[in-house]
From TrEMBL:
Pfam families: adh_short. This is SDR family NAD(P)-dependent oxidoreductase. It comes from Luedemannella flava. The keyword Nucleus does not apply. The lineage of its organism: Bacteria, Bacillati, Actinomycetota, Actinomycetes, Micromonosporales. Keywords: Oxidoreductase. InterPro entries: NAD(P)-bd_dom_sf, SDR_fam. Belongs to the short-chain dehydrogenases/reductases (SDR) family. Transmembrane segments: none annotated.
Amino acid sequence: MNVVLVARSTERLTSLGADLRRDHGVAYRVVTADLSSPDGARTVLAACADLDVGLLVSNAGGGHPGLFLDQELKDLHRRLTLNTTTHMELSYGFGRRFVARGGGGVLLVSALGAVHGLPNMAHESAARAYVLNLGEALHYELAPAKVNVMVMLPGNVDTPIIETFGLDRADLPIRPRPAAAAVRETLAAFGRHRPMHIPGRLMRMMTRFVPRSRLVRLNGRMLGRAAANLRRRESALA
């Protein structure tokens, strides 16, 4: 597959595209866009207007652990656009194109926190719940048009977000799953036309069998410690 790479960092995307071309012989296009801005999704759609896109992987996201009322309203609006509105607009724009072309795929990346409220990350868990419900519904709505839709719910995947959120790896309930393994597993589930997938058998078991109220408390305490770590980090930089 040729790829369109989208993010704010043109330089990093260009480097990644060159690696993909060298290793896999694919063409790439870089689209520089801030997906937390109201125009972000429209920028992507316009930049792909001349391409026969067949698969959308909508992986935009971000967050900031902390109490809901302690955060600035403008930041909450910005992250709501990033975590919710952008996924909706991309799914709508590319979904209509896929139906018109007679097939395609949409892979929405939500988060495991979407299945219940997360204390100290209430805003993000609520936003991600929209993505989960949107994707699950579209899985059935668009199936007759041969458009495959699935939602990925990563819960404990080894990416830089662990440090960005201020999480202590020692606090994580299980060892983070390598990102490449999580992606391979997710794509296999996508190929089986699953509506939703949680990478990692242990994370799936925890989600299914641990009582919901206990998961809310455990994750809330862990994110509370992450928020404290971020405050200390920000104070040290001030």
